[in-house]
Amino acid sequence: MKQPTPRERKAPQKPDPTREHLEKLAQRETTYWVFSSLLLVFLATTVIIQFLTAGDWLPDTFFLNEQYRRTLSVGLPGLVIVFCLYITAKRREISRLKITLYDQKTLLDRLEERRRELERALAELRRVSTLKDNLLSTVSHELKNPLASIHSVAQILMNYSDKDMESRDRFYQLIHTETKRLSNLVGNLLDLAKIESGRIVWDLSAEKPEEVVRSALAVSGVLAQEKKIGLREEIAPGLPELLVDRDRIIQVLTNLIGNAIKFTPEGGTITVSARSAADKGKKFVRFSIRDTGPGVSPDQRERIFEWFHQAPPPDGRKVEGTGLGLAISREIVHHFGGRIWVESKPRHGSEFIFTIPVPARVHAPARPEAVAGPK
Predict the structure, then answer these.
(1) CATH T-level topology, domain 133-197
(2) Class of the CATH-defined domain 201-372
């Protein structure tokens, strides 16, 4: 039989002193009610006996002498009334105590809620602090390598200007590649800053999914050719228009295609598809990027969408990147009301999928607006 984990075991509940006090007050109030009822019954019984005795309706054994009857008819009702007044005062005191305890309990509940809010805020501050540390570490590392390469190549070109044209072209190509890496890094950092600040500009327009996919394929085609990887498209006919930021959706597609190219071996194939789909009465367009790479392990399928996280490849080789592309893609897709996920089997490739809802009416705004970005 499976033993419950420590998290599954319920922690012992602490006694609530306020609740216990309220229960005691309720018991005391019930006791006072019982005493009051008994006294009233006793008083009523005494009055009835006095009435029956005065009217000679009782047997002789029930007759009481006149002095005792007078004392009983005056003293007993007075005693009962005084005791009833005492009980009423006590009940009022109990009511005031109950109100006070209820107010205290309400205040304690509010304080507990405030404590939980502060704990959540503290956790968020720690997350931001960790994010900042990761940012500094990653940026420092990612800036150091291309800058060192550019510096070395520039020094070679300056000191050995008589190099043959082929060598010079190779050095120029290296400079171009490293400056492109720097440009991508700066672009991702700018996107990260906009998303974290909560303000980002969305240039909404009515776009055809097939045109967006083909634009992304055109951008990524050169890199795929360099690695001798085939790019295929599978676009269903008659797809509905989407109200999106064209550049941002192309950014998502190029990020996903770029990752697929990075992990797909030479001679592999990447398939980019778009088709209509529906779920629970909602229509959307489903985009997918399927590769023939090593795949993503189950424990990494959620983590790869976190900031600065990179899944270690199965072959153990070092992969370049900042770990920002998938996280930025997730924020963009979520902004448009879609979702993004990965389906994969190790050594059988991966398929990254994201959806964009189809609006009821496609109406593009006259100009881009700065709206609150995703958090």
Answers:
(1) Helix Hairpins (1.10.287)
(2) alpha beta
- The answer to whether 219 and 256 have CB atoms below 8 angstroms apart is no
Same fold, 133-197 and 201-372: no
* Global pTM value: 0.57
Domain boundaries, the chain: 18-123, 133-197, 201-372
Mean pLDDT by 10 residues, the chain (375 residues): 47 57 69 72 67 56 54 63 72 76 84 91 83 67 67 73 70 75 73 73 90 91 87 93 92 91 90 92 93 85 78 63 80 92 86 92 54 43
